Amino acid sequence: MNVLATGVYGRCGTAIIDHLHDRDEYEFTYLNRSDRPDDHPYGGYDTHVANIKDYEASRPAFNDQDAVIHLAAYPFDFGTWDDVRAPNIDGVYNALEAAREAEVESFIFGSTNHVMGMYEVENAPDIYYPDSDIMIDHTDPKRPDSYYGATKSFGEDLGRYYVEKHEYPKQFYAIRICSVRMPEYDHPYGDAERMVDEDEIERGSPEYKEQVARMKCMWQSRRDFAHQVDCCLQDESTEFDIFNGVSDNDRRWYEIEHARETIGYNSQDNGEEWDSPPE
């Protein structure tokens, strides 16, 4: 299967490289706004260098692809409208339109938990602890918490329009990614430890403990994320669907039963199994 992944050198894209690139059934091409030198940990891959905001520059990368994993976007919930509009609105349109023209069968969209973020805003910090009884599934009303979340909600809607209105793409999968991190912080203490490393908080402080509590809910390990993408690539029955992207954490507030039943998602990790950061 020929697979194009856009925006591949960030947290989620590199998880795909680490866990899926060498699989015999896939032949990956990467589209990114910049390349990496050969001596970089993620250098030396077949990369089409273009900004997804530029349709003409990006369009050739979609030729002869069977599937697209669209991750290219402005990724921060604090972004202004000017920050998110072109990469997240024009960008997803360009990717879907290119997939339509190139007759790409399957489109996997990197959506976000921020499409549902107001549930967290209204209930934090109580929602981070085991006695919370909140559980969100893919049928609950969308409640974006930011311009970023709203653009990802738009991307989900645009994907549905394309698969129902056009011949291609034939399948659209939205993964509402929770918290995937780079390898050095790929654990439920990752955000807190990064903030310690950057001198933002002290280890063991109330702020540190709250960051850990939240990540024990929201963490999706890199291997679980790559596995979920793999499940979408292997699926042949779905036309349009939305899945929560999170590991099987005891205290998560995003359900994963729908992903289990529909695409065979089998999370291997659980944030509750960690009681300290790795040494």
Keywords:
Rossmann fold; 9 helices
How would you describe this structure to a colleague?
The structure is a single chain. The protein has a single domain (2-182, 220-270), classed as Rossmann fold (3-Layer(aba) Sandwich). It has nine helices and seven strands, in the order E-H-E-E-H-E-H-E-H-H-E-H-H-H-E-H. It has helices at residues 11-20, 55-58, 81-101, 117-123, 147-165, 190-197, 206-218, 222-234, 257-263, and strands at 2-6, 27-32, 47-49, 67-70, 106-112, 171-177, 240-245. The protein has a seven-stranded parallel sheet with strand order 3-2-1-4-5-6-7, with helices on both faces. Helix 3 (81-101) packs parallel to helix 5 (147-165) and helix 6 packs antiparallel against helix 7.
* Morphology call: globular
Cα-atom Rg, whole angstroms?
18 Å
For the report, how would you describe the main beta sheet? 7 strands, parallel
Going by helix content, strand content and strand pairing, the class is: alpha/beta
What's the order of the H and E elements?
EHEEHEHEHHEHHHEH
CATH class: Alpha Beta
Describe, in short, the structure shown.
It is built from nine helices and seven strands, in the order E-H-E-E-H-E-H-E-H-H-E-H-H-H-E-H.
Strand-helix topology:
Blueprint lengths: L1 E5 L4 H10 L6 E6 L14 E3 L5 H4 L8 E4 L10 H21 L4 E7 L4 H7 L23 H19 L5 E7 L12 H8 L8 H13 L3 H13 L5 E6 L11 H7 L16
